[in-house]
Amino acid sequence: MATVRVFSLAKKLGLRSEALIAALEHVGVTGITAAAAIEEATAQAVVELLAEQAKHAREEAEAKAAEEAAAAPAAAPEAAAEPEGWVEERRVGRRGSEPVVGIAELERHVRELQQAETKPGQETTYALPQEARRQRGERPETAIAAPPIVTILGHVDHGKTTLLDTLRDTAVAAGEHGGITQHIGASELEHDGKRIVFIDTPGHKAFTAMRARGAQVTDIAVLVVAANDGVMPQTIEAIGHARAAGVPIIVAVNKIDLPDADPTRVKQQLLEHQIVTEEWGGQEIVVEISALTGDGLDTLLDTILLVAEMEQLWVEPEAPFSGVVIEASVDSAQGALATVLVRSGSVKVGEVVWAGGAYGRVRRLRDWRGRSVKEMEAGRPVSIVGLSEPPEAGEIVRAVGTPKEARALAEDYRVQARQRELRGVAEVQLQELYRGLNLGETKSLNLVLKADVSGTLQALETSLMELSKVLPEVEVDIVASAIGDVTESDVVLAVASGAIVIGYNVLAEDHVLRVAADDRVEVRIYNVIYQILEDIEKAAMGMLEPIYEEQFIGRAMVLQLFRISRLGVIAGSRVTDGKMQRGARIEVKRGDEVVYDGKLTSLRHIKDDVPTVEAPNECGLLVSDWRGWQESDTVEAYAQVEVERKPVAVAAE
Length: 653
Ligand code: GDP
Hints:
Elements: E1 3-5, H1 6-13, H2 17-26, E2 37-39, H3 40-71, E3 90-91, E4 100-101, H4 103-118, E5 135-136, E6 144-145, E7 149-154, H5 160-174, E8 186-191, E9 194-199, H6 204-212, E10 220-226, H7 233-245, E11 249-254, H8 263-271, E12 285-288, H9 297-311, E13 313-315, E14 322-331, E15 335-344, E16 347-348, E17 352-355, E18 358-361, E19 364-366, E20 372-373, E21 375-376, E22 381-387, E23 396-399, H10 403-423, H11 427-439, E24 444-451, H12 454-470, E25 475-483, H13 488-497, E26 500-504, H14 510-519, E27 523-526, H15 529-543, E28 547-564, E29 568-581, E30 585-590, E31 593-599, E32 602-605, E33 608-609, E34 612-614, E35 618-622, E36 634-643
Parallel strand pairs: 7-9, 7-10, 10-11, 11-12, 24-25, 24-26, 26-27
Antiparallel strand pairs: 1-2, 3-4, 5-13, 6-13, 8-9, 14-15, 14-23, 15-22, 16-21, 17-18, 17-23, 19-20, 19-22, 28-29, 28-36, 29-34, 29-35, 30-31, 30-36, 32-33, 32-35
Helix pairs in contact: 1-2, 1-11, 2-3, 3-4, 4-11, 6-7, 6-13, 7-13, 12-15, 13-14
The chain binds guanosine-5'-diphosphate.
């Protein structure tokens, strides 16, 4: 049975754990901690309850606001939009002004979740971005092979732009007529009669930023490393980003025309970053090239096609149109321009499309060379003219029936985007909530590590791996590790990978922390390795399946019976020891004999339904499947209590 942990469900719902625990008590789950795992069905029950609560609260607030507005027309009605209740507000981020999320937001989360759950086959709503990754592997009959989408990554000045330019020039020279009239942000090449698509914005920041929005565009990463310069900080970062995306890497050792080129040294350096080349028994393919002279580019293209073949990429040409925005801008003459990778189906001039806050009728389509086309098929990039505004990179574009419909979708999207912005809610979290509820909690603790020098970085990695061994149920996954201060790029990577950033003897500047707070990424800076290990261990322990033990929690004496036809028999009792707890297992004893053993369905104090009543108070006990109470019965209550796990000793350094 899939489970989800209380604290993570709370986080995803935008609640404090205590608030969720209180809500869980209302659905009969008692005596648990924030680290406890609850079953998916329970999670859904509590989510429904919260939705119900949120709805009531909102309706009440609206009624109140309407009343107030009627009484004093000048009063701002927004003031009452987030009423108080046990649905508490979330605190977001870790510093400075902390935006909060209230009931309206929660209600929206829940609604989206429910939509996503009830209609798995249908298109997901915009607020729940799908992993817009290309289909791969076994394909349906209607599918056809798709050209690979390649992104070029690497350190600055290592030749990314030159490589793209040379490839493009070759392609254009080989083509029959005309050059490139207008760059659209992606280029297409034909090699051996097969197409390859290159994304024009090289660099891992754009690559990962798009991934953080839920759109994985790249199929293959080409890592450019200058043969004279060797592996540099951004090379290492790029490796981390490609690895985190699970994208195959082809290393292009560039500038081999230079006299001081030393490809062997580059390969040795790459070994330190777990890039083991084929000649040394590994899997990674290294191609030596000169982007300037064109040497080795044929081999590079061969290699890309080879890797693409192994990836078995496909698209469905007959499916409804959808695509991913890879770039957008505004042109003074043409208005909004959006370059889109067609992911399925095809897009045609005259069709109505919608992408996030943008919509419109396709007025003109251009291929990668800027030439007008009537239609663009799946697997290829196209520039779309006719949208109301430039959509954001990573946004999904779809065909919609009518302009009216498209406009409503876009407007709705914009309103919600504004709310999200105000409240600082990352969409990624929603996606994760969805996954969490559906697949159960993944027990992988993802980390992005930064340290001052390679020695400490290695020590840290080794210790973390050791820790991972003594905690076999949790997988500590180092998404990336590098030397240097914590950068925005680290934060973006952490968002995309659901990771925590750990810095050792490094800094994280204020603007980086602000980005982290906005994206709700945890950044932790340490000066003592031991403390890192201790904290990670605590976090990992919190992810382990809790151990429960049944413990005696209290005793009560039945004083008087109340028969209520609709409900059954309520045993008016006094708690003499400890407490009574709703949902607890109870044994009703008459003398030495146990006359009932079952679950305490309902617990009342005076007239209220309550989760617990402590000694020496009086209470009403009700069980749904038994009415045989007698005065003077004693009731013993037992609850599942989570037992604390013993920490495992961790060797530091
Ligand atoms: P980017 O920052 O990675 O995009 O690097 P650029 O493509 O702008 O290249 C940086 C510099 O390296 C430019 O001066 C290029 O002309 C030069 N360069 C790029 N590739 C080669 C190459 O294969 N050989 C030589 N000699 N120079 C190169």
